[in-house]
Specification:
Protein name: AbrB family transcriptional regulator
Order of helices and strands: HHEEHHEEE
Number of helices: 4
GO molecular function, one term: transcription cis-regulatory region binding
Largest sheet: 3 strands, antiparallel
Number of strands: 5
Number of domains: 2
Keywords: DNA-binding
InterPro entries: AbrB-like, SpoVT-AbrB_dom
Shape: elongated
Helix content: 25-40%
GO cellular component, one term: protein-DNA complex
Structural class: alpha+beta
């Protein structure tokens, strides 16, 4: 009986259109009508709300992950400037380390210049990153 309900999983514009058509239904009913459910071995319908909501977010073009799209949406972007903190530390944020592909435990050699800091990655011969200050 419940197996007859299964439809193709909608994504993108088709998903948005269907959700607008079903505005009078509950969110669980909308998710089920858009194909975001599974049947258990006992034949019970389980609505996959997280997959449904994530598909809606993707269909709207909202970027929640740290990788940003070029349309300017989603959080702060790297300014390529840092300020010495009140405790004297310089903090290089995760936006920069992710962009550089760094992982926890990566080591660098620090060379100090008059107004610059040069970081040379130890496990790589020719990877150098400058942080001007």
């Amino acid at each position: 009986m419940a197996k007859d309900l299964k439809t193709d999983v909608l994504t993108g514009k088709a998903l948005l259109k269907k959700v607008k058509e079903l505005e009078h239904l509950s969110k669980e009913e909308k998710a089920k009508a858009c194909g975001y459910y599974t049947l258990t071995k006992a034949g019970v319908v389980r609505v996959n709300m997280m997959k449904f909501l994530n598909a809606l977010i993707d269909a709207e073009g909202i970027q929640l992950d740290s990788t940003q799209s070029s349309n300017g949406r989603g959080g702060r972007s790297a300014s390529y400037r840092i300020t010495v903190q009140s405790n004297g530390n310089l903090l290089i944020g995760s936006a920069y380390t992710k962009q550089m592909g760094l992982k926890p435990g990566d080591e660098f050699e620090i060379s100090l210049g008059r107004k610059h800091i040069r970081l040379k990655q130890l496990d790589s011969d020719d990877s150098e990153f400058d942080e001007e200050e």
